[in-house]
Amino acid sequence: MQDQDPHSFARLGEGRVNHLFLKAFVNFEEKKITATATWTLNESTNQHSVVFDSKGLNIQKIWLDGDSTAISFQIKDAEKFLGNALIVPIQPGTRKVHISYETGPGADALQWLEPTQTHDKKSPFLFTQSQAILARTWVPCQDSPGIRFTYDAKISVPNGLMAVMSAENPDKLSSDGVYSFSMKNPIPSYLLALSVGKFEFTPIGPRTGVYAEPGMMKASVHEFADLEKMLETAENLYGAYAWGRYDLIVLPPSFPFGGMENPRITFCTPTIIAGDRSLTSLVAHELAHSWSGNLVTNATWNDFWLNEGFTMYFESRIMEALYGKDIEDMHLILNGEDLKLTVEELGKDSPDTHLKLNLEGRDPDDGMNDIAYIKGQYLLKRMEAVFGREKFDAFLRNHFSENAFKSMTTEDFLASYESELVKDQPTLADSINIRSWIYGPGIPDNAPVFHSTLFEKTDSKIEAFKNGASASELGLKNISTNEWLRFIRGLPAPLNKERIKDLDGTFGFSNSGNSEILAAWFEHVIRNNYQPAFPALEKFLAVTGRRKFCKPLYTLLNKNPETRSFGKMVFEKSQGNYHPITRESIRELLEKG
Ligand code: BES
Ligand code: ZN
User: Fold this and answer.
1) DSSP of 104-168, one letter per residue?
2) pLDDT in tens, 43-62
């Protein structure tokens, strides 16, 4: 374990915390959280100070152990992305540090929603997003994935609202607005999470269920009907689930991500509710993080591929086991295409295309792209092919049990790969050349290749369309979402007005209830400045804050001089609905011009 994380002021080698008690009041009127965080220090701490991360917090008082006298403390000047180091003087033997504070107006982990921004439009809503380094904007903490702690919390919310955390959760409304939580497994700070709103709980299986606003419940329960089966499938692959329950909460559409693997309760976007369960691989992904990420955690954000690449691999194994290889191979092919585009964008020699990153001095979110996710997934697929599934699975099972509740660097992983998997089979290892994947750029030549006869069929339809067939002559009926995505992505980039109208009129893409299809289709709409679909595009962007959709669409709008002012106008109107994470990404790209 290395002793410094470039994205935390906490010194990993010393003065570490091991438990948090958070007592907090959620104030919707003033859009702030008022709280006391009581941190328990490791017994071995024998230091004169302990360092926390904080960003924009208004720290009111700090005291130690049972003595409520305020002590003086130091807040360092803010550093870009990182915020302020908070230095608390302690004595050798100090066990508890109490910090009372309020969140500031720029607390990027928090999104406060007005009732109109929720599905049911009746009550306000709050959710947090702590990954990667935003936990420090709502709790003073040692905000490094290399530091773990257990926690308890007591959260007061307005009467009539419910609260859930990444912990043991209530399944009904409390009569006094006070909720108690407990997370008994040690977690890193980026998995601290809270959501407050008018939602209800419906069980799906004995260990699984869904929290959602009442008006979203029926659709949610239908969409996630396979949740318990997914959990069992995951356990069959890589060992017992360590967290007790696995629930989902369906958030309002401004949630900036598809999903976030908060322990015991994945936070997810409503944009995966397509009505036909076709986008639930995202749930398999977040569930898989219960092993890769939450159990075995990247030690720093430079090792992010250990979280996401492993999870993408695990996700695809769950999907294959549940729905078949044909379905999953299509997904892998689509991923491979995305990866190629990302490598082109970043530059095929760019160090940002290495699996092991160097994000020092940068926002760790810069590493959140297809390299960690898909290059990582492809490396594991390659390893599976070379060592054989049986051996590789045994290695992974052992990896998760040996390293449970630990953090790991890329180098730790390499060492265990060599001693556990390669052992005395150097020729196999040579055919992988793992170092070229990890420390080298681009997509290595030995990347796996996947085939799909269904996609071959789709490709022949694209050819027919290119050769002049009309949309209705293509015979595209009852195909899966992945086939639609293949079709839409494969359409020629310039499409004249007649052809694009024919496609939209025949297949109704602009009115699709499937967010992935909509987002892929709108790329053509923008490239071709196809005005009749602009109202649908505006409607989508007005409420959807999922960055994965917003970013490419605004980028294209901004690129095309004919659509640039429309893009700016939609952003002005919609930005109030976006989470700070999405808002800042879009603002930045629009300013770049
Ligand atoms: N942990 C990530 C989300 C994340 C990563 C948030 C880095 C902040 C910083 C989550 O598991 C994730 O990967 N979500 C994806 C979905 C997935 C199916 C690829 C997303 O939100 O699109
Ligand atoms: Zn993930």
Assistant:
1) -TT-TTEEEE-GGGSSSSSS-EEEE--TTTTGGGTS-B---TT-EEEEEEEEE--TT-EEEESSS
2) 766 689 999 999 999 999 99
